[in-house]
Amino acid sequence: MKIMRRLYDWVLSWSDSPYGSWALFAIAFAESSFFPIPPDVLLVALAVGAHKKAFRFALICTAGSVLGGMLGYLIGWQFMALIGDRIVALFGFADKFVRVEQLYNTWDAWVVFIAGFTPIPYKVFTIAAGLFTINFPIFVLASALGRAGRFCLVAGLIYLFGPTIKAFIDRYFNLVVTAFTVLLIGGFVLIAHVM
């Protein structure tokens, strides 16, 4: 846990740097395939420091994350035995991988969208998408929509409420995102049954 805390503090330290936007892009890129700390930490810090630029930071974060997701896809598709298995084992996701395969077989790109939007470890799903050879353009589109939705939600809250929302995001973000995802999926299921 000390290593994770040091990584968390290191990520947060970039908010005081003139290279904060570049760091946000790089961390979002890395987190989508192998880095353990989500970019939301730095996104919140940067957006609170300059809440008028919150959506700009969200777009930077989205771009880095989607490109990093493409790297994760490549790892799963071409280098699973060499690199992917080690990344999955490092984070203790080996037992979840079988479940992820079942989800992909049932829901395909929806899994990528939901993983991109929710607090679920996105890197597992990017690597699995490559391993199970999900349609690449659909993977990219689902990643872009899911990640943009997540990061723009954070940016929107900070833009609307300013620094006062930081404590709420820190405490309840996972719950809010999970509730929103359940409502979103419920809406799609309802539409499918009505039509």
UniProtKB/TrEMBL annotation:
Listed A to Z, the keywords are: Membrane, Transmembrane, Transmembrane helix
Please give the start and end residues of each transmembrane region: 20-47, 54-73, 110-132, 138-160, 172-194
- Taking the record's annotation, the residue ranges forming a coiled coil are none
Tell me which positions the record assigns to the signal sequence. Answer: none
Keyword Membrane present in the record's keywords: the answer is yes
Keyword Membrane part of the UniProt annotation: yes
Q: Which domain of life is it from?
A: Bacteria
Q: State the InterPro entries in the record.
A: DedA_domain (IPR051311), VTT_dom (IPR032816)
Q: Where is the VTT domain?
A: 37-159
State the GO CC annotations: plasma membrane
**Any one Pfam family match given in the protein's UniProt record, by short name:** VTT_dom
Q: Quote the protein name from its UniProt record.
A: Membrane protein YqaA, SNARE-associated domain
User: Native species of this protein?
Assistant: Desulfoluna spongiiphila
Output the lineage of the source organism: Bacteria, Pseudomonadati, Thermodesulfobacteriota, Desulfobacteria, Desulfobacterales
